[in-house]
User: Which sequence fits this backbone?
């Protein structure tokens, strides 16, 4: 199956996403911050990156997404966000400013997560 990186500062999110995706046969690595994520990304071989938008700083995920795409990382990025649930704000679309392929709104159900991941991996 695919190798997926989940980057989120919430331990519960990392653990639950990892458990759900591993149950479907994916290999999952997890990072709690930008520095950990960059170490894993440098190793290469990722098929997908699930990236929280807000971590230590409100724009950590956006800045990391822009940096890794600028560095030539080919793995698609799906942004994770719980902002909409709290504020009602929903991110627009993926583009050069936010170089992702899609969004997942947290909290996400296991079925929604699997469906989104399979759809994105199927696009590759």
Assistant:
């Amino acid at each position: 199956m695919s190798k997926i990186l989940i980057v989120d500062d919430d331990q519960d999110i990392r653990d639950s996403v990892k458990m759900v995706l591993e149950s479907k046969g994916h290999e999952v690595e997890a990072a709690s911050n930008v520095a950990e994520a960059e170490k894993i990304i440098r190793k290469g071989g990722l098929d997908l990156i699930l990236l929280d938008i807000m971590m230590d700083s409100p724009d950590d995920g956006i800045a990391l997404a822009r940096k890794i795409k600028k560095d030539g990382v080919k793995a698609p990025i799906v942004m994770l966000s719980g902002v909409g649930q709290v504020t009602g704000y929903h991110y627009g679309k993926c583009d050069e400013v936010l170089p992702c392929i899609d969004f997942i709104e947290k909290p996400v159900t296991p079925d929604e997560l699997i469906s989104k991941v399979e759809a994105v991996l199927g696009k590759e």
